[in-house]
Hints:
Blueprint: E1 5-6, H1 9-29, H2 37-51, E2 64-65, E3 80-81, E4 88-89, E5 95-104, E6 107-115, E7 128-135, E8 142-143, H3 157-160, E9 164-172, E10 178-185, E11 190-197, E12 204-208, E13 220-227, E14 230-233, E15 235-236, E16 239-244, E17 246-247, E18 249-254, E19 260-267, E20 278-281, E21 285-287, E22 292-299, E23 311-318, E24 326-329, H4 340-343, E25 352-360, E26 363-370, E27 374-380
Parallel strand pairs: 13-21
Antiparallel strand pairs: 1-2, 3-4, 5-6, 6-7, 7-8, 9-10, 10-11, 11-12, 13-14, 13-16, 15-16, 16-18, 17-20, 18-19, 20-22, 21-22, 22-23, 23-24, 25-26, 26-27
Helix pairs in contact: 1-2
Amino acid sequence: MQLRFRQSIEFSWVQNAFDLLLVLVSFILLGRMKKYFHIAILVVALAGTAFAQIPSWGLGPFVRPDNVNPVLTPNTNSLFACPMSGTAVHWEGLHTFNPSAVVKDGKVYVLYRAEDDTGSAKIGSHTSRLGLAVSDDGLHFKPFPMPVLFPADDNQKDNEWTGGCEDPRLVEAEDGTYVVTYTQWNHKVARLAVATSKDLLHWTKYGPIFSNYPAFYKSGAIVTKITDSRLKAAKINGKYWMYWGEGKIACASSDDLIHWHMEKSVLPTRKGQFDSALAEAGPPAVLTDAGIVVLYNGKNGNDPTLAAGVYSAGQALFDAHDPTHLLSRTDKPFYQPEMPYERTGQYAAGTTFIEGLVFFHEQWFLYYGCADSFVAVAVYDPAKK
């Protein structure tokens, strides 16, 4: 199947700017438009900024497929018998967002956060459960009728009720086990937890990844590499590694993908830039020839080129032999809200909150949450870079 893509706005204008630059420079050299020299300089600066958004070591550019997004939207007809409340709830009736993804049996499976219509009408006040959807092409999805990971009468209920299970990051282990890190939210404190599955439908919960850690913490992106034409969890120096945290990003290591040891903070916020309010781990990191590529989310605090509070996406490169050693970092977001579905929802400032990444059919598929309300996809074809 051949895909047609509409170029993302931040890249579509680059070629036009470059063409305009050539014309202006030609006139300047001829001495006929000297008074417009400052315009040429501005175009050079803008074009240079756009081209610099994807460094040589980075992934992208990612473009939005034509007539596809959003790929998942709320379904007010879905009913689920909640084991905690004892009632039937519209478990994905309000919002569907913040997805992760994995390739299984030649198909893309997306594990996404769904909010029901209980609670008050403000962010974080509803109950979240994790739903599952499947696709043959990575673009068109069929959701399963029931959530697969949710608050239940189990040993994690105090951590998950009434807030729920949120914001998954999903990886495949070397033995075929699926491992998800997700946020447990009880409307008091958020904790990053882990669960495992053999089929993506039935999950075993292990609870918070850091025992006796009282602080609010979330967002765990495990390091992966391409193995057997898809991403799988990768060991470095005999251990698994994970980038985690909201506010600033830290590192952790593990022998088994379940029990984790804190290392140190590795990616802080930066004043005046797209990640000035917070930096938050995105989808599973990728071990490449250049190093470990970490795609992450940045919330704007005081970057004057972006709206206040907007979430956009950046990239960072860490040493392949020392996952705590930062080598490089993008100064501008490589992906940011542009489309109505990325700006219209319960988070009005706009989000392109990246959480899912797969290598599928020799292309990269990036799945993200839109304005805390929908799920969308962007695609990067390395052959076209």
